[in-house]
Amino acid sequence: DSRRTYPWGNEDQELIDFHRDMIRIHKDNSALMRGSYRFLVGEHKLVAYGRFDEMNKVVVVMNNNYEDVEIKFSVAEIGIPDHTVLTQLMLTTEDGYFLDPIAYRVTNGKLYVRMPKVSAMVLRANL
């Protein structure tokens, strides 16, 4: 009876694919399953945090503004050294989600990211 409202035969395939991909990212990154948490930055409608363990370092950035935002913040407190490259695992926007592996380099101890409006990004450090 609890599944009566499920849209049988009319499922949102993009939403199902998103959850499948997000579960894969979660399972492939030990830091997301059992790593420590560190708040990295918080501003009006903008937040970033890190999840990390000995093997894996992940950064999640969320922009809830209705305009693009440029953000620069330190990732040293989660063990990511200068000149490290982080790879984008997923980007979500109003238009959907993307799995393009875009590289971001830590420069002068800071990670610089340009976030589209109403978006979220998951990045993994390549150590």
Q: Nutshell version of this structure?
A:
The chain has 127 residues and is α+β, with helices and mostly antiparallel strands. Helices cover 17% and strands 45% of the residues.
What do these coordinates show?
17% of the residues lie in helices and 45% in strands. The protein is built from 2 helices and 9 strands. The protein has helices spanning 13-28, 30-34, and strands at 36-43, 46-52, 57-63, 69-74, 85-93, 96-98, 103-105, 110-115, 119-126. The strands form 2 sheets. Strands 1, 2, 3, 5, 6, 7 and 9 form a 7-stranded antiparallel β-sheet that branches. The model has no long low-confidence stretch (mean pLDDT 95).
Q: Please work out how many helical segments DSSP would assign.
A: 2
Q: What is the helix/strand order?
A: HHEEEEEEEEE
Q: Based on Cα principal axes, name the global outline.
A: globular
Count the beta strands: 9
Q: State the major sheet.
A: 7 strands, antiparallel
Helical content (DSSP H or I, runs of 4+): 10-25%
Any low-confidence stretches, pLDDT <50, length ≥5? none
Q: Determine Rg (CA atoms, Å).
A: 16 Å
Give the distance, in angstroms, between the N- and C-terminal Cα atoms. Answer: 49 Å
Structural category:
alpha+beta
> Strand-residue fraction?
35-45%
Overall pLDDT metric:
95
Helices and strands, with pairings:
Blueprint (H helix, E strand, L loop, with lengths): L12 H16 L1 H5 L1 E8 L2 E7 L4 E7 L5 E6 L10 E9 L2 E3 L4 E3 L4 E6 L3 E8 L1
Antiparallel strand pairs: 1-2, 2-3, 3-9, 4-8, 5-6, 5-7, 5-9
